[in-house]
Amino acid sequence: xxxxxxxxxxxxxxxxAAAAAAVARSDDLDDALAELLGLAGEHLGAGAxxxxxxxxxxxxxxxxVTFGIAAEVASEAGSVGSLASSHDPxxxxxxxxxxxxVDDAGHVPVLRGSTxxxxxxxxxxxxxxxxxxxTMALGFAGxxxxxxxxxxxxxxxxxxxxxxxxxLAVSMGSERAEWFDRLAHTDPLTGLANRRTVDRLFELExxxxxxxxxxxxxxxxxIDNFEEMQRAGGNAAGDEALRRVAQILAxxxxxxxxxxxxxxxxxxxxAPGPDGLIVTERLVRGIGAxxxxxxxxxxxxxxxxxxxxxGRTPEELIEVAEQAMQSAREAGGGRVVARTxxxx
Length: 344
Prior knowledge:
The chain is an alpha+beta fold.
């Protein structure tokens, strides 16, 4: 009779060694879950199986892996939503955190080709609290195996829960590392590249321009009367002006350009090719059209220098651009001054 003993032929030691190896040695969650699901099916003599992972943010289960299930069935049963109120047996398992024996597998859409089903929660314990991470569903062509046999699948569901939890931890670690990396390369107020990042990119762009014999422009922008704006409206007004200017800069540059917050109220543009002056003038006009901040109009003074006519190193180019920016400020602001022959 089905279920009187495990239906696999290998020893219990070999069987559970394979299950442990599926978790310990696989760096892909789907591969580990597929191996564990297959072992559970082998152990119980199931003809079909599926593992769902809980997406707590959207209150639904998402189908991860299957065996013995037609592709169209898997597609139709790819998710189970509204778990708090759903009558799907898979949702019941998540809510109760207990295995469920189903005498009519037709109630479980993903196993509708089976006669009976056994559903197990994927549970981990954190700080003494049981947390459901998903479900393992197994379908049978005939009656369910004996209870003693069904219990043998629970360690496999536990291992599947460990695999899911590890994958979540790795994902969170990766996202955290990405966040720190982004934080290290961007200015937190404006979201633009920061000084360290643009300095490194500047060196790379100058080297590339030298190798390829192409033009490169660097432009520096400084917000006009920024200190006066801060004295009148406080730091909040200054921060708002910086954010608005940064938004115009970010939205108006070309894909090949790099824009960064360079220092205080200064921004830098790296513009490969011959059109740096045109891009800079467009940016200055866009900023000049901004709405006033705390009653003060917003404009910038910009200075631009070009490789190789104004310099062949980042330091030489920045020195020329700073001098040009100073000239623009002394001329009343809201304009571009270029120290290259193209502006004469």
